[in-house]
Amino acid sequence: MSIKDRLAAKAAGIGSNPRSPRPEPEIPSRPKTAPGQLMASLPLLAEKERELEVLRTRLEELEVGAAGGSSDEIARLKKELADAQQSGAAIDIRLLDLHEVPGRRRHMPPEKYAELRENLRHNKLIHPIVVLPRSEGGFEILSGHHRTDALRELGRESVRCVVVDATTEEADEGAFFANLMQSDLTDYEKYVGLKRFQQTHANLKQAEIAGRIGISQSYVSLLLSYDRLPNAARAVLEANVGIVGATAAAELASLSELGKSERVVEAILQVSVGKLDQAQAVRFAKDGDRTKVTKPLATTFKVKAGKTTWCDVRRAKNVMRIEFQSEEVAQSVQDAIKRTLEGLASAARGELRDEES
DNA sequence: GGGCCTGTGCGCTTGTAATG
DNA sequence: CATTACAAGCGCACAGGCCC
After folding, report:
1. With bands split at pLDDT 50, 70 and 90, how would you rate the model's confidence at A172?
2. Does nucleic acid strand B have an atom less than 7 angstroms from the CB of A218?
């Protein structure tokens, strides 16, 4: 999955990325660009928020007397605003009252987080934090952990939140499913979410889970293969969620079950320090040979005529390039090469016939 | 002879479908 | 439920092509 992060980071800003067509909802690019794209990702909340904003604006205008409204109208608007807020629209909540539930936080690369924070330093929060009331007081954060972190870091007191009405279980599921749709969630994080979901729904088969999420059963199986890794390996992944994708994890898990768990742990450690990539890690765990990267180097040589180069030969795999000083020389050599090649070809044909008989 | 730009194949990934 | 085969997207490295 690490490559995906890299790719995603590099592809950011490029419009045509079919794998991750959705704009990052946690980062408000610029207020002016917000409406269309960003609202698409959270249509209901955004819609509500926009209605509220309209109400607030009109109320403000009336109160300062700019629009010359009657006191009746002000009262009516105030009530409308209060009603709207009651029914799950955005309200301001003190950051002190927001609490994190383990396992719900999405991974975000440090650079991205810094970008988000700087954005929030200068721009208004576009998407409210989504929270759930706690019985013991305060609120659980459902979505918006990084925004909350950033605002805390910026020394803000409160934040615009949307309070949703749901059970914790529904909330977990909601957060999980919403997260799983995020293409930049690492496979390991998907596994953690899946695992939790599976534990609370022990009766569900992989195919059923897959159906609910909208992915294939085999992908569910792949993701859950992290479960078959040695504990020590998972501990490394816990701290480096993006380094081993589900495909490699599945292979490593199989190897582990074949009695190579020590090598699997070692391989994952090597990946975590950047010494191996995923594919190399699998090879490492498989046969233990130091992975030799078979990079087909282009071979070259030059043929000199006195001090100057008469021709320059390069070969990469099955392609040769021969460069001469003039077209005339190239033409004459071409004939010679042709004769040589024809000789080689007939010899090769002879060998083939010998082998066949 | 070497530098620079461009096009493309490679190696990696995610994800689905078929099969065991 | 696991495994295997395959399709497709992506960036990067490097071959290919051109120019000075």
Report:
1. low
2. yes
CATH of A187-287, one of 1.10.10, 2.30.29, 2.30.31, 2.60.40: 1.10.10
Range A20-34 burial, b when 16+ CB lie within 10 A, else e: eeebbbbbbbeeeeb
Q: Is A162's pLDDT higher than 70? A: yes
**Cα-Cα-Cα-Cα dihedral sign, residues A327, A332, A336, A341:** positive
Separation between the CA of A246 and the C1’ of C1 (whole angstroms): 16
**Distance in angstroms, CA of A10 to C1' of B13?**
15
Query: Tell me, in Å, how far CA of A294 is from C1' of C9?
Result: 24
From residues 293-312 of A, which are strand B contacts by CB within 7 A? 294, 296, 302, 308-309, 312
- Least confident range from A168-172, A183-187, A291-295: namely A291-295
CATH of domain A41-167: 3.90.1530.10
Q: Which residues does strand C reach (CB under 7 angstroms)?
A: A 6-7, 10-11, 14, 16-19, 205-207, 217-218, 221-222, 224-225, 228, 250, 253-254, 295, 297-298, 314, 316, 319, 321
Query: Residues A269, A235: contact at Cβ < 8 Å?
Result: no
Task: Residue A225: count other Cβ atoms within 10 Å of its Cβ.
Answer: 21
What DSSP state is assigned to residue A257? I
Tell me if residue A311 falls in helix, strand or coil: strand
CA A186 from chain centre, in angstroms, equals 6
